[in-house]
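This is your field. Please look over both lines of this record.
***
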Amino acid sequence: MNIYDSCPELSDDAYRIRLIEPRDAEDLLAVYSDKLALPFFNSDNCHGANFYCRTLHDVQESIKYWLIEYHENRGFVRFAVESLEAGGVIGTLEMFRREADDYYDDCGILRIDLAAAYEREDVICSILNLVSVPFMTLF
């Protein structure tokens, strides 16, 4: 299965991980406009972007870009992280297999951006437990 042809959903009793969608913008505005969460966002190799979004339009443009990277460029997959308890999207998770002429060739790169209230060890461990094994085969 090629993840760029068909993106699976992963879920357990607490979280659902699925391909990001335009309808996620309002929930993600609360994440990406939160200055307390901003220091935790990983923007390595993002050409100066820090993912701070002041408006709904900013988030919508980010989602458009992430979907182009997925559907057209096949560069990475940006997943929505839904909390089943909260009933909404609490962040995003990005994953890709790096192909380069260096030490990190054929390595998986994972980014997790969460709302500040969810930047906790138990939440992050739960999300990693949900995706770790499937990601090893998908990427």
Notes: The chain has one domain: 10-134. The domain at 10-134 is CATH 3.40.630.30 (Aminopeptidase). The first helix runs from residue 25 to 32.
